[in-house]
Amino acid sequence: MAQTVFLEAINQAIQEEMRRDESVFILGEDIRRAIYGATADLLSEFGEKRVLDTPLSEEGFFGAAIGASLVGMRPVVETLTSFMWVAMDQLISQAAKMRYMFGGQATLPVVFRASMFYGAGSAAHHSDRSYPMFMNMPGIKIIVPSNPADMKGLLKTAIRDDDPTIVFEDGTLFGMRGEVPDNADLPGEELLVPFGEAKVFREGTDCTIVAIGGAVNHAIATADQLAAEGISVEVIDPRTLVPFDKQTVLESVEKTGRLVIADPAHKVCSAASEIASIVAEEGFWSLTAPIQKVASEQVHIPYTPSLEKHVYPDVPKITAAVKRTMEG
Amino acid sequence: MEIDRDTLLLMLRRMWMIRNFELKVMEVHSAGEFAGAAHPYIGEEAVAVGACAALEDTDYITGNHRSHGHPIAKGGRVDKAMAELYGRVDGYCKGKGGSMHLADYSIGILGESGILGSSVPVAVGAALAAHIRGDKFVSMAFFGDGASNQGALHESMNLASVWKLPVIFLCENNQYAVTTSYADTVAVDHVSDRASAYNMPGMLVDGQDAVAMYEATSAAVARARAGEGPTLIEGLTYRFEEHSLGLGRVARGAYRDEAEIAEWRKRDPLDILENTLISQGIATREECDAINAETVDEVEKATDFARNSPFPEPEDLFEDMWANPIPLP
Questions:
Q1: Quick one: angle between helices B285-308 and B5-30, nearest 10?
Q2: Residue A280 pLDDT more than 60?
Q3: Residues in contact with A17: Cβ distance below 8 Å, sequence separation at least 6, in sequence order
Q4: Is there a contact between B118 and A104 if contact means CB atoms under 8 Å apart?
Q5: For residue A134, which of A14, A300, A265 has the smallest C-alpha distance?
Q6: For A65-78, what is each residue's pLDDT tens digit?
Q7: Residue B320 located in a structural domain
Q8: Is the Cβ–Cβ distance between B307 and B25 less than 8 Å?
Q9: pLDDT category of residue B36 using cuts at 50, 70 and 90
Q10: Residue A162: burial class (beta carbons within 10 Å; 0-12, 13-18, 19+)
Q11: Which residue range forms the structural domain that includes residue B179?
């Protein structure tokens, strides 16, 4: 199995889908020269009509992608989470609502790939982890991959899916290396990860950690450290938040009786909040301790590293949360 | 420009269909037969009908809140439109869209947006698909003078011009954004003046004259199909009724004076088209009246159809969310 960098996995997914289906095209800012790396070499292979550099007009080109999807194209938009704010009307009023509002007439196979740059001194305007806001809005599928293999497999699934999808690409993982299976070794010779299937990274019996995006690696590190102390931790990555695989989480909590949720988004109305509420409603009698949310502090992202490092879930915070569930 | 008789009579029929549809909507809305806002298109019929007569069924349009005229102008079904206003299962959107969100994907009506300016980038996107695939269809975005101030419009016009997309920006300038006048909100004399900033032709057209609208739009469509890019057309028109049914009647005198309304009512687009047809010997008064009467009948049948259509069942609430359904949370 090949060791692949996260950004290369994105590139492979797009390249494979553009080869497979002529209706797939990509648009965004500075993608021809692949300023972030994910779109490297696409221009030379697929040409200017299918690899479009856009003006700084998110409302305009998000809407153009939506409109193209309505008439049979499969656009992939590259953007940053923080730039989605200026195009929210297109994402919400159009992408999310059109199908339902028009009684099922509209089909929108459009993918928005939104990079989440945080933890790198980018300050408040470039560090958004905004997936919970979109979870609140019906009509958009939401995926948050935590490693190169899932990144590739989920993005390919997203491009083939007939509904609007936002892929939240965690910038803290862009340089991560991981095993991505060679296509030749796979059934059907391609990597497709289904939506709505959580992945269990560590099996354990004492406490369940559900972790999102970049927090998954911290959760795995926490589990490995606590194993040395005799605490057996199960680590679950939901991989997709809409749809959300609640069964895997509820079954795990039934086994462990304890739940910690690690979520890089802001704490209030986070993905962690929703997962906590699902387990409180449907898994309450399995719990032997209060649910612990480890999410970002409810402040804006400060520029200086000396402050920013205190914002997000990390191994010490997740470890402390697991230990709180073990008290008493 | 030579316009064939069939096209002219079709335009007259569609204009009468809109007029009579809207009159019926006003009647049944005030009788309380359905809820919600509805924005009459009366007075503006020539804009949508003249513009859409220049399109094929395979071309696309998007519209806005004042939205009954656009689908009828493009050949949509008045029974399904009326049933949608009544919130019934046989409506265009099975009762989920209502007055401001009519759509008919079978004839290129991609849907209307209650958020103004918001459907314009969507129309640009349909044109982008034509550009990428080499298809010959065009798309047309209807918007008002109010929406011409939205950022989405400016981003769309620039994008469409840079990429030379086959799109027509069709501004229906009825001179008021609800109660706020054009002069108070737009810094140039005409919306069409803005075209030069996006390096595309801008055409100011008499929006009460369906033939003028048809001719201008035909030129823009030909330009788009030839790969020469977008055009901005401004149809100067006037809303004869209030902004929305059930809203603002008390405010009429406060923002438009009666003399102005009366002056514009003298330029009724139906009179203008009928006078053209009769004076040029294309149709007789009797033929024009017959078309009017036929559309009255058709609207009456559409209203019966709507009234007799059932409301959706409670379980329909959960239908049409996804093309590829996922479990409810």
A1: 40
A2: yes
A3: A24, A74, A76, A155, A156, A159, A160
A4: no
A5: A265
A6: 999 999 999 999 99
A7: no
A8: no
A9: confident
A10: middle
A11: 5-307
Residues from chain B that touch A59, judged by Cβ atoms under 8 A, are 121, 151-152, 155
Query: Considering only CB atoms, which chain A residues are within 8 Å of B329?
Result: 244, 278
The reply to whether B35 falls in a domain is yes
Longest dimension (CA), chain A: 63
The Cα A192–Cα A143 span in angstroms is 13
Third-level CATH fold of A199-326:
Rossmann fold (3.40.50)
Q: What are phi and psi of A273, to 5 degrees?
A: -60, -45
Count structural domains, chain B: 1
Q: Give catalytic residue positions of A.
A: 126
Decide if A125 contacts A180 (C-beta within 8 A): no
Query: Is the whole-model pTM more than 0.95?
Result: yes
- With beta carbons under 8 A apart, name residues in chain B contacting A273: none
| CB interface of B with A, residues 100-119, below 8 Å | 101, 103-105, 110-111, 113, 115, 118-119
Return the number of CB contacts < 8 Å for A and B: 160
B328 in contact with A, Cβ within 8 Å: no
Q: The domain that contains B33 carries what CATH number?
A: 3.40.50.970
In the CATH scheme, what is the code of domain A2-189?
A: 3.40.50.970
Q: Which amino acid is at B45?
A: E
Pairwise CA distance, residues B38 & B34, whole Å: 10
